[in-house]
Amino acid sequence: MRFTSEELQAARDRLVPDVAASGLRVLFCGINPGLMTAVTGHHFARPGNRFWPVLHASGFTPRQFAPAEQQELLAHGLGITNVVARPTARADELSAEEYREGGRLLAEKVAQLRPRWLAVAGVTAYRVAFGDKHAAIGPQERTLGDTRIWALPNPSGLNAHWTLATMAEEYGRLRAAAFADASVQAP
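Structure tokens predicted for DNA glycosylase (187 residues):
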């Protein structure tokens, strides 16, 4: 899919609906929708984004889903939302205030949906949104009610110091924690 610059820029005002339901095992949380995501309405839609390959490589999904298949995540106890709803070309277009307000709104969303884990794909976004400047990749001390939080590497192709393999390993650690109880099997 190729879109013109005009089509991409016109998507800056579009909201991308969450893929979510109550009681998910993991609610993945991107930083904010990119313009390709806003144009298509599908999360992590930019071709260089590694979210979908990493989800499969880490064992969360039985095969690699395409962004257009995002609703199928719900059957696997997974969902997607964002810290900030406003689409941008780059995350650095967001203000610290937008991140903090996004963190507040995300906490409200988590209180309503009650996923077992909130997985924020981008430790810097997590730090700013939740005021935790020392957060590192991995499980966090903070919880939102009964929901545990895991900071994950950002799957953007621009995050070059994390390879597909190293990201899959970290996402796999989350998968093991999310499906740790014997009553629920990983997909």
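The longest strand covers residues 138-144.
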